[in-house]
Amino acid sequence: MSRLATLLAEGSRPVVTAEFPSIDGGGLAAVEKAANELRPFVDAVNATDNPAAHAHASNTSIAIAMSQFGLEPIMQVVCRDKNRIAMQADIMGASLFGIENIACLTGDDVTAGDEPEARRVFDLDSTQLVKVASGLAEGHYLSGRAIKQPPALFVGAVENPFAPPLDYRVLRALKKAEAGARFLQLQIGYYPERLESFVAGCVEHGVTRTTALLPTVVLTKSAKALSFMDESVPGISIPADMIARVAGAGDKDAIAEESYQLTLELSRHALSLPGVSGIHLTDFRHDGSLERLVRDLGIGPAFASTSDPVASAAGTTSG
Amino acid sequence: MPKLLPLIEHAVKKPVWDCRMCGQCVLHSTGMTCPMTCPKTLRNGPCGGVREDGHCEVKPEMRCVWVKAEERAHSPINPHHWEEEFNDLRPPVDNRLKGTSSWINLVNGRDRRTPAGWQGGAQERFSAVPGASMVEIDEPTTLPEGFHS
User: Which domain holds residue B48?
Assistant: First the structure.
């Protein structure tokens, strides 16, 4: 059972996950450096799979490298770039190295990236991939071919509570939970009331009985960053008054501080919702704000107020 | 007649639903909105990239297929059981059926056949007759080559 699975099952404290930066060369030292920065403050970290349809060092290689540096990986697998054979092979291959946490995503379209002329695959959709990955752990490939020593997997997915059709998002979360998703990292969102009704709906429909919800917050330091996400990132919308609040804070430092305060507020709100098991962090600042955030929130391995039996039992293999 | 059916089906369904001839039609369960017209061909609901105005991430001028599907699935003119099927987990597409008549595949049950692993079975359940699943579509009733633009 992965450390993430254990922590979520115990439910003794909010779990903190984060996004690993994209790696483009620099050898394992580049991975080690990023791992060292995150390790004290987070429980598990996403090894991303060509985010925003840009090629980087692969999900499997980063997940394996992260685990070598004592960081618990959540390997993202997106449906955009590979067919069902390749995706199953990646999950099985990573499992040889002890990778257990798998997050199944549809993936941004190729047109969101820098190679929009690429062929999009989408042989499976994310919900189907959740079921297929869960099948691997049960001892068979999608074909039905038996896996004699099946991998231990902890399968999850992503859902966006903030994008239309809003009424349908809870049912889609339920569908993923029924397909085998045991955690759902939620898309970046700036509408607390939408998150609230989504989480309440998940509780009502029984999603949270089997599946942990991890809302995402983003650390930014400018109004421009918010405007960029609002205008350019598919599925993310930010209320104009929120952007105006940050933009009108004053000089550059004041704006950075107001951005932080906004993130802190959104985080506190998310963590206050019954049915939320933790939080997922995306850091666009890289200025120590991630540490400040988990400290202010009193969460994660470094600052959790409750004792963390897993951390002391599991130890780390920091390199 | 079997050779003609894909042509007839395409002629009927293309103008109305922009049919892509996937050969395993689920229109009735998706609010009579074809999920294969989604640029990501998603058959189990919308991706996370739907725009605030309900339009598609990839084609901003197009309303999200699943936003439309969700609205139409609850239309009172549909039979009740269609609405119930809206939330079904639809299996991966069988790419061998592309270009074949979903009408024939519906009648003979071919469109409901899934890999053994989809139902949770290990190999023993389906390997009794190796290759058996291939036999029936050795001569699928496909559209002529180059029919699709």
Answer: 25-89
